[in-house]
Design brief:
three-stranded mixed sheet, alpha+beta, 15 strands, Chaperone, DNAj Protein, Chain A, 11 helices
């Protein structure tokens, strides 16, 4: 029986890339692999797909096949006259390495862990910027062996995995790839470990760092210090340090983005007659003009008196909310004067207390509806 065209078997074009071939083979392997498909015909279809994949992913064999067809490559693939043997599992493990614990990849040493540290700031420090010294407990590169973990700086190729860092366990047609138990995935072993770090290449230490906090940072902002995290084992790269800003509450101001808010208590007289009031800002005091007949809750916006954004450099505003303060601990004379004042305009509630009169009218209407 004549063999089918390899490109036709995989369902790809003749100019298919290696990625296209791998994707096509992966799809067919998932469908026809004997561990997934118990039908008798599935094994033959899987062998056929495997043979096509092996030939077309080898540049020399693919070139010969494209020129001379099957005659140029018969017997060179694992699924050809040699039969269906153990290296099928190796191909399958390479395709599905993510499922079975890693493919046929070069072993890479894992860099050190990132560190996170919280830094508390006053609002003024967050708004204006500050430079702080911090102490960071971490794992640093061992100075005795320069992070290699070896007393003499020499390492040997692991005999168990041959320097790959992984070993393959074959169970019939199925293979599983695992981290090498001898070198723990490093691909190398230390025969003469450093006495200071005991072969780990790093030791516990506390570093003192100077951290510049830019002006305008807000609660939750993070500052990344590259390479200031933990050192990697056996000379691997160093992680990063992330400093997270936490801004303490303020007695006067509350921050909302780039704006600042504050409540301004004013006396009954100032609110009624109007006048000027000194308002604190983070840049010093400014005068706020209070118009006559100002009601409690009224907002005043002071442009450019907020926070300068760390990202856009746009300056926010200061928003002042007027809060009318009722006088307390009045003397007898003060009480008499207030009573005289009350009696003087008692009959003119609509004119002097429009909001109060409107509210009372609403209350009367409400009860009338309830009783009708």
């Amino acid at each position: 029986m004549a063999k089918r065209d390899y490109y036709e078997i995989l369902g790809v074009a003749k100019n298919a890339s290696e990625a296209d071939l791998k994707k096509a083979y992966r799809r067919l392997a998932m469908k026809y692999h004997p561990d997934r498909n118990p039908e008798e015909s599935a094994l033959e279809q899987f062998k056929e797909a495997k043979e096509a994949y092996e030939i077309l992913t080898d540049p020399d064999k693919r070139s010969a096949y494209d020129r001379f067809g099957h005659a140029a490559v018969d017997g060179s693939a694992g699924g050809g006259p040699g039969g269906f043997h153990g290296d099928v599992g190796d191909i399958f493990g390479d395709i599905f390495g993510d499922i079975f614990g890693g493919g046929r990849r070069s072993q890479q040493r894992q860099r050190g862990s990132d560190l996170r540290l919280a830094m508390e700031l006053d609002l003024e420090e967050a708004v204006q910027g500050v430079t702080r010294e911090i102490k960071v407990p971490t794992l640093g590169a061992c100075k005795t062996c320069n992070g290699s973990g070896a007393r003499d700086g020499k390492k040997e190729t692991c005999a168990t995995c041959g320097g790959v860092g992984q070993v393959r366990m074959q169970q019939g047609i199925f293979s599983v790839q695992q981290t090498c138990p001898a070198c723990h995935g490093q691909g190398q072993r230390i025969s003469n470990p450093c006495g200071t770090c005991h072969g780990q290449g790093r030791v516990r230490e506390t570093r003192t760092l100077s951290v510049k906090i830019p002006a305008g940072v807000d609660n939750g902002d993070r500052i990344r210090l590259a390479g200031e995290g933990e050192a990697g084992a056996n000379g691997a790269g160093t992680g990063d340090l992330y400093v997270e800003v936490r801004v303490r509450g303020h007695r006067i101001f509350a921050r909302d983005g780039d704006d600042l808010h504050c409540e301004v208590p004013v006396t009954f007289t100032l609110a009624a007659l109007g006048g000027e009031l000194e308002i604190p800002t983070l840049g010093g005091q400014v005068k706020l003009k209070i118009p006559a007949e100002t009601q409690t809750g009224r907002m005043f916006r002071l442009k450019g008196k907020g926070v300068k954004s760390v990202r856009s450099h746009k300056q926010g505003d200061l928003i002042c909310r007027i809060v009318l303060e009722t006088p307390v601990k009045l003397s007898r004379r003060q009480k008499e004067l207030l009573q005289e004042f009350e009696n003087d305009y008692k009959g003119d509630d609509t004119e002097h207390n429009p909001r109060g009169e409107s509210w009372l009218s609403s209350v009367r209407e409400f009860f009338e509806r309830m009783t009708s």
